[in-house]
């Protein structure tokens, strides 16, 4: 449809007068249309999961997949982009910084229906993505992980990213991937300065808005962003501030919710989740529905 429309706009039947009128209303209409076609043609439609270091990104992905394929740590460990996709076979594809591609088929080596099989995959990924375990992780631009994930339809993939606020090199890899995303899930650790450290998470949000304004993300809708506020079990429920009649948890939630809406005005109320990933079961279906939408 977009290509047919583009051909019409470029044809001789589309007169200069019509072109001039359209140009007044939409100055970059041809560029935007061409970028949208390119965006749709991408093999992958990435739902990027981002957040500060140790905010709970890997834990969230494990919960969504219902398999603990990533080792969760309390410090910066993920050094590369990890793409997770639905695949009949279990396999890993690595791309080095220099562009070298290597494929490994693990189908016969790990049965993901068993905890032992999941552990085999987790240990394999640890060597490729956890920079605390192996120095060679810095050599990879991305690690592509495939196994049967029925809810990831068509070309939709989940993308685990290095923590925001980590090393400059690792953060740069995250920023470079942003234009490839069609949606975002931001994980916010409420135990750190109430959740929104001004110099970290808002910076990446501003970068996304800028890319959108420059038409670098034509298929991305500003409303398709989910905020998962995590680690509420670290906030005292009954302690009250001397200057407030509300407890710390309520005050933190109101402040954080306000900060999110101020930083990302397009956010939908139902896209802000207040959770503790330890109590994941009641959030699984709502999150999955948003991913599939």
Outline the structure in words.
The structure is a single chain. With 293 residues, the chain is of the alpha/beta class. Helix content is 37%, strand content 19%. The chain has helices at 2-10, 16-25, 29-41, 57-65, 115-129, 168-177, 201-213, 248-263, 281-292, and strands at 45-51, 81-86, 91-96, 101-105, 140-147, 156-160, 181-189, 225-230, 272-274. The chain has a 9-stranded mixed β-sheet with strand order 4-3-5-2-6-1-7-8-9, with helices on both faces. Strand 7, helix 7 (201-213) and strand 8 form a beta-alpha-beta unit. Helix 1 runs antiparallel to helix 3 (29-41). The protein is globular.
Largest sheet: 9 strands, mixed
Which structural class should the secondary elements be placed in? alpha/beta
Large-scale geometry = globular
Give the low-confidence spans. Answer: none
- Considering DSSP H and I runs of 4 or more, what fraction of the residues is helical? 25-40%
Q: What is the rounded Rg?
A: 21 Å
Total helical elements: 9
Q: Could you give the count of β-strands?
A: 9
The separation of the N and C termini measures 21 Å
Q: Average pLDDT, to the nearest integer?
A: 78
Which descriptors apply to this entry?
293 residues, alpha/beta, nine-stranded mixed β-sheet, 9 helices, 37% helix, globular
Q: How is the secondary structure organized here?
A:
Elements lengths: L1 H9 L5 H10 L3 H13 L3 E7 L5 H9 L15 E6 L4 E6 L4 E5 L9 H15 L10 E8 L8 E5 L7 H10 L3 E9 L11 H13 L11 E6 L17 H16 L8 E3 L6 H12 L1
Helix pairs in contact: 1-3
